[in-house]
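>> received
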Amino acid sequence: MISTYTRFPQFEIEVRRPDYTVLNYEDELIATFGVIQSKEVSTACISYEFSESLSSPSSSFSFNLTLERDSSGKTWMDKIQIRDLVFFKEHGKTKFVGYVTNRRYAARMGEKAPQRMITISGMNIGNLLVSFSIVMDQHILAANKTAQSASQQFMSSIASKIEVNQSLAGLLKAIIKSYLDMQDAIGESGASGIRQIIDTFFDLSSKFSTQIVAKYPMALSLFQMGENNLFNILQSIITPPFHEMYSKWNPSTNKFELIVRPTPFDPEDWSKLPLHVVPDNIPPLFLQSYDIGNSDSEVYTVFGVFLPGSGFSREKVLTLENFSLNLKKDTTKWPYYGYKPLFVELKFFNRSNESTFQAGELMRLYSQKLYDWFNNNPNYYSGTVTLMNVQNQQYPSSPTIGERLGLLGGEFYIEDVHHSWEYEGPMTLSLSVSRGFTYSQAGIPQYPIAQIGQKIGILETLKTEE
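>> returned
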């Protein structure tokens, strides 16, 4: 057991300026902020925050700086520019990379006087997968032979036919490559500054699970006139909630990873997730705050999956008795909540296989999976847990999205992580968690977390004794 924790922050923030006009990535160091002043490091930073989320690649960051001036009278507002890259390091490792979208002079009331500052904010580099868009205009493409060739390859990849049990990983990689190549071709510059950043800092292939396979014959039709972005194109092929696609920075590889995998709610997948355990005899300083509970805001009593084009449309399944047998109903909750449906529509069924593919069996399988994953929602605990951001022998790594948190004798799924620090305070991690329950070592849900009040009472006693 660790008996002491330090409030001394261990972070650095680097601001670097890429050259967006050259073919190979180059950058210039603009500033480094930290807690120990030197010729290379400024102590002007008085707070920072950044976050990552399973639900979106577009998370944000901000940091506040004092109005210090250099020998020529310039402040950091004069030196940091829009589209500069920002690298947040904690405990010696890069944890987040973003780019500046906003700079502001700001003020707020302090304990004794107004606090004036410069606020720098922006988005993580994963937002480039959303903002790096292509406008599919045939008139633009017709005027550029290189763009026409790249467009044909892209159109071929997004109109593929996929057989049952065929892996989707190769298809996703082909779409990514053809999309980026077409973006370069339309720009007629060989490479853009954004493409440099993607090629240098992104891993868009190694975390694509080979377990993602087609469960039914597919005929993709992803083309849309107007604006298209890479993330939305890929998301349309994945089938939430059965699969999930999210992105995060990996401190071990120093790459921003795009992760595509089965949603890890089956026992064999749940048990393989990294587990970060907060012990029951946790030192008081380590647990900063918590807000944990359960509710019936997401209760479902009918679970169903539809496959349009296969003969198992939404209309048939809901109105015809022999088709409705493919739904899964929770008769225990029905008297309390009535009709509360959770329906999922699978996309891109290849209609030429309608007469030969047994869609009913697939519908029953997926409806049962929905039931197994979500019928217990009212008993799952969820909320927010804020921990001191430390790194040592007992806690060698920080919890991050898509992993498990062990707390109060149960396990939780980490959906969002918020890093923050303010002057004279500790570095903290705020975790948004869900699916809090007790699980066997094999990942099988067992029973609700017991005696939470008593366990929290022990934590409160420890805090009082401190």
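>> The chain is about 25% helix and 30% strand.
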